[in-house]
Amino acid sequence: MRDLKYRVFFENLLSDVKNELVDAALSDGKLALGYSCYYVPEVLLNLGGCFSVRMRAPGIADTAIATYYMSEKTCMYSRSILERAIEGGYNFFSALLSTETCGMMHRSHEHFEMLNLVKEVNENFFVSHIDSPFITKDYAVKHYEKQLKKHILDRLNEVYGVDVSEEALRKAIAEHNELCRVVTEIGNLRKQENPPLTGYEFHLIELVSECCPHDLILPYLKETLEELKTRQPDEKPWYRVRVVLAGGENDDPDFTKLIEDAGAFVVADRYCFGSLPGREEIVIGENETALSAVARHYIETNQCPRFMNPEKVHGRKAYLKQLADDYRADGLIIQQMKFCEYWEYERMYCQQVMESEYGLPCMGIEKEYVNTSTGQLRTRFQAFVESLEIKKLSGEAAK
Amino acid sequence: MKYYGGCDVGSTYTKAVILDETGKIAASTIQRSKINAAESSRLAMQTCVDAVPGLRSPEDLAYIIGTGYGRNRVPFAAENVSEISCHAMGVHITDPTVRAIIDIGGQDVKGIAVAEDGTVKNFAMNDKCAAGTGRFYEAMARSFEMTLEEFSNLSLKAKSAIPITAQCTVFAESEVIALVGEGKAPEEIAAGIQMAVAKRCFVMAKKAGAVNQITLTGGCAKNAGLKKAIEKVLKIKVVELAVDPQLMGALGAAEFARRKGGAR
Fold first, then answer.
1. Which residue does chain B place closest to A355, by CA atoms?
2. ipTM of the complex
């Protein structure tokens, strides 16, 4: 296949949190709002005059200082975020919208306040924490809605005068939905037998949509979608097997590439947040306010393993099976960051259920935030591909 | 006569096997790996080629498959297959009754469950640290100022085992030095080390779903003390292979080459 026109551009955008599109939005006087969890609705951070930035720490090599504050028994992602903050990597933020979903990331965000990070260069900077429910009852959604109002909308309005009216929210939702439609349409191309894009390329596209100001990245995404509609894949599919990649936080496209280099096409991605879930359109129901719709949407689509009610616990496995069917996957890879309090359990449980109850071959991986030990991982992925390939051949022979 | 090659470039040793059309081993070698994987593979395969009349270079072989951590760097290989699949195949053609493998290489430990046709049913791998690997044994032998072979046999004389608590290679080495300093019997310390490694192997084997008919492969399969400890921990007799267990990866690769090359 010919290279995507914007592949290198997208890779460059992801090489630094403060990329050239972020710089352009900042020079327009817009407010950069950081977040690192699906419980913080991205759409609320894209009200007029603001833009959301998914927090990443690309190229982080050492987390010595963050480890001193948070201990080595915390996940590398939360430590990497704190380390990057101490390095000054988020000094352009106007606010950090946090949630106590994940204890380790919450500790990381608390240290922004305790160590006076960012505030020393921007005195208006604030960290706001949401109390997030982990049940899906109506009263929980109501509580969540109140939290979003109190800790995101009211704070943005009080500190920066951001317009948080119903009209402003509806406009933000409409713009958000347009971005979601484009990303989803690109992602759906992966369902094809011989698709015009790789999982790595989609991972880049999905990440730039979360790490760049939406209005500035959208034209590139639209152009990429048009390019993909006419892009000719190689005559014979390049992959040996198709897999769903699931698990916790994963903002490293090189990890996806490593899997694909072993011959497995990553057809669908189901992480803490990303495209599945993450890029579903928000529908405002009749007799519903924009904020109510946002609250309901983010609780309904949420696939966080923090939810412990039976519908969500079983629903998460059914969702994976549905993805495997829709995207015609031969197997499932579940990745989990070391010390991740939720995915550590979810991965083990999921592996058992997906294999025994759904008959989907499954492989579990414990990884670090930074992609290390690639030699060993490559061996694991290749062996999994070989075993899936043999199962596929045996299945075809049996037919 | 056509010949097929398998080259297993490991972190510590490079192994090569040549099979003839009938699947009989025509030549094999085990050599210390060089820093350059391509050079290691060429030297090992050339050694094998030199032992087969009529062959002059690896290019004279009908089909070659690379495996091991350096499998991508075998310059004359037509393709590469993971060492997990190759070990399963190598063991299967050596003894088709085996259903599980514990492969202890230079830098990792793998548990592999094998299907009746020699394919991998499941596998588990410990690649996070050097504990229980060949590197670990090299460090332990160094602590006792022994060769690897001497250390491997040391625990066989022990009447009891002194438990080793440290799992990390570096800390285990310190613990062993301390125990030696306290005047503890070396064979009992060695037995403790072998038991600690055997327990790690037990975990790998169970994670992979291994049940019975188990064998050991990789360089550490020749460690008599470890074999005895594993039999004690797993409560089963380890199957002895008729071919050097360290050659299983290369043998499996050569068999894949014979099947793929022969089918072409």
1. B122
2. 0.75
